[in-house]
Amino acid sequence: QVHLVESGGGLVQAGGSLRLSCVVSGSIFSDLIMGWYHQAPGKQRDLVATITRSGATNYADFEKGHFIIDRDNAKNMVFLQVDTLQPEDTGVYYCAGRLLWDSNWSYWGQGTQVTVSS
Question: I need a surface site. Which of 79, 88, 94, 111 has the fewest CB within 10 A?
């Protein structure tokens, strides 16, 4: 069984920073491409960034320079550093994982709420 648990969300003022964390249980972590999604209130869930086991990263075009994704394979964890937060960054951030050979994101966390006040 694979479980993903996010943490690190909260209320922050505009211009501030947060570091979101996600821990993955089970021995499958090394086979997973990990990603972070953002779902703003009333909006669809959008992919923000992905990272492979070797550390290769990919970002949504509109997020480049705003987020940094990284992972610690020894601890089965993935992180999302978010700097210069703006009110439009408010929403739920989800950690997700997919197997290397699968295009579907099969594993999801419960999400962590980020609220940015102006």
Answer: 88
Q: Answer whether 57's CB lies under 8 Å from 69's CB.
A: yes
Name residues whose C-beta falls within 8 Å of residue 102's C-beta, 6 or more positions apart in sequence. none
Tokens 């550093």 locate to 81
* Among 49, 26, 25, 53, CA closest to 38: 49
Encoded tokens for 105: 């994101």
Which two tokens mark 27? 């021995």
Tokens of 115: 């609220």
pLDDT digits (tens, 9 = 90+) for 65-99: 689 999 999 999 999 999 999 999 999 999 999 99
Q: What is the mean pLDDT of the chain?
A: 93
Distance separating alpha carbons of residues 3 and 26, to the nearest angstrom: 7
User: Per-residue pLDDT averaged across 37-43, rounded?
Assistant: 96
Q: Tokens 């480049």, residue?
A: 64
Q: Work out the burial of residue 48: count CB atoms within 10 Å of its CB; fewer than 13 is exposed, 13-18 middle, 19 or more buried.
A: buried
